[in-house]
Amino acid sequence: MKKIGFWALLVTVLNLPGKLLAQEFQFTVNLNYEQLVAQQKTDPQSMSQLQTYMNDFLNNTRWTNDQFNKEEKIKCKLNVNLTRSLSQGNYEGNAQLVVSRPVFNSNYETVLFTYVDKNFTFTYLPSTQLYFNENSYTEELPYILAFYANVALIFDYDSFSKLGGAPYVQKAFNLVNQARNSSPNKRGWDSNGDSKNRYWLIENLMSQQFTPFREGMYKYYRQGLDVATQNPAETRAKVLEFLNTVKDVNQLRPASVVVNSFFDAKSEELYRILIEAQPEERAQAYSLLVNLDPSKTQLYQRLSM
């Protein structure tokens, strides 16, 4: 069977004009509560209302001053897995955020960012209205969701313009500061909590040490993937340039949540782009990738063949 290359996936059907008419997100929220059912009686209607609340809050809140065409909405998935409920309305679990965007002149969607939050703890009762105020901590669930929304904006805007997500870095940082001072669930927000928590995610994105990484995302996407159908060699060059940037950042901040999350999202895509490179480029890519992302060495080994 003839191998179908990465570039063959890119079919010219999509155009990306300026952001114009609608709100920002097309969030899909998936809620899994099977572990709760095994532990106790769980009201499916209450879970359905919780899922609807999260979906409506993310999709219907105005997060920016920009306008988006319907087809330009930022596509995101939020997969929530509830694992414990110690009392009525109090839930513990984890959540996975996945942010994607289309590639210019193609029907291919690239994953911008994926993040697993192991501290998804909150209170929700269908009979109680939740309030959100970005300038003053209100309640846990809307604050976590607002944090996710701003993180999604950071990665989307950074992919279209150099450091374009800067306003949303500041907004997410402000949310973290509000929550870490007031939240009853500090493990998700505080610097003394989980090393991959929300505090450390936004700390990475705020840090000057990660500025080259964020600038490099513009090169990877807008100057790299977005020219793939016209100039695949240029795409590979920009991807390799970005990997060298990641190497420099990783030397300063090894095992950071931002770098780890990047490779969780991009390993398969990186392989498919670089497998079609010239032997010397493949060798360079292999050396970089097995050092930066050793857990996926088996995948990258094919680049050295």
From TrEMBL:
Keywords: Signal. This is DUF4835 family protein. It comes from Dyadobacter pollutisoli. Residues 1-22 form the signal peptide. It comes from the Bacteria. The keyword Signal applies. InterPro entries: DUF4835. The keyword Signal applies.
